[in-house]
Recover the amino acids of this structure.
């Protein structure tokens, strides 16, 4: 483990569970890692403004990778290091497609959330995210300005999976990167914008290191690319089988402090 110089962590389902907080055991384990000279950063599907408090809570010391890699920002200086939004024409096509199905649509622009109606599921989302929602009459008006991400929500995981499979066939990942951070979310960013590409950028362009010096921990499909990039990739205990298959290790779930467990196990 002496070769590992960087640790990237997902938030939801990895360091934060149902309580929406990071347990003291995990914070202590992260601090132990940092005391050995390892840099720690967040890589999340959350908005930058929603991820910021977790950055502070764990004492992270790298730019925040948010929106699954579409937005990278330095929380110390406020500098937006990288922003790769969706093509507006593709975003319009996607919005029309999603509106033809029974899903809620969230549009993210300028690190703010926009919806055309607030539902119970929207309320739950914004409460967990700790953000303010903007309600507009027509989301199409925003999409001419190239949004950072689109998110479709449904209480029906089978519908989300079906839409995801269909959209992947339609776009073949050439115009969109499509993924899930949990079974009820479908997330879309610009082509080739994902956590793997983002942690590569931070590791190689900012830190001057290589994938051989990286460890990454996540719990869902949107963590697949970063776990694959890292020399040591760790899947949480309740991660999908596809994630566990490519991971170097599997740890316990978030409620049982899986991050702290794997750090202790590897004598990080």
């Amino acid at each position: 483990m002496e070769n590992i110089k960087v640790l990237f962590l997902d938030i939801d389902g990895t360091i934060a569970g149902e309580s929406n907080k990071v347990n003291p055991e995990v914070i202590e384990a992260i601090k132990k890692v940092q005391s050995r000279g390892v840099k720690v950063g967040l890589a999340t599907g959350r908005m930058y403004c929603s991820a910021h408090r977790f950055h502070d809570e764990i004492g992270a010391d790298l730019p925040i990778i948010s929106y699954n890699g579409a937005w990278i920002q330095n929380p110390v200086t406020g500098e937006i290091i990288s922003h790769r939004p969706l093509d507006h024409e593709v975003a319009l096509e996607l919005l029309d497609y999603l509106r033809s199905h029974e899903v809620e649509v969230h549009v993210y622009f300028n690190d703010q959330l926009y919806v055309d109606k607030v539902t119970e599921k929207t309320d739950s989302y914004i409460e967990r995210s700790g953000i303010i929602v903007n309600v507009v009459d027509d989301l199409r008006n925003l999409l001419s300005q190239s949004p950072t991400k689109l998110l479709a929500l449904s209480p029906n995981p089978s519908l989300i999976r079906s839409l995801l499979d269909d959209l992947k066939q339609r776009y073949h990942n050439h115009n969109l990167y499509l993924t899930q951070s949990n079974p009820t979310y479908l997330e879309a960013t610009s082509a080739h914008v994902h956590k793997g590409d983002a942690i590569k950028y931070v590791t190689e362009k900012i830190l001057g290191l290589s994938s051989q010096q990286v460890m990454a921990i996540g719990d869902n499909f949107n963590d697949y690319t970063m776990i694959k990039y890292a020399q040591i990739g760790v899947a949480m205990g309740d991660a999908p089988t596809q994630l566990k298959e490519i991971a170097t290790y599997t740890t316990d779930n978030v409620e049982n402090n899986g991050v702290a467990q794997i750090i202790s196990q590897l004598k990080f």
Remarks:
- DSSP finds ten helices and 14 strands in the chain.
- The chain has a mean pLDDT of 95.
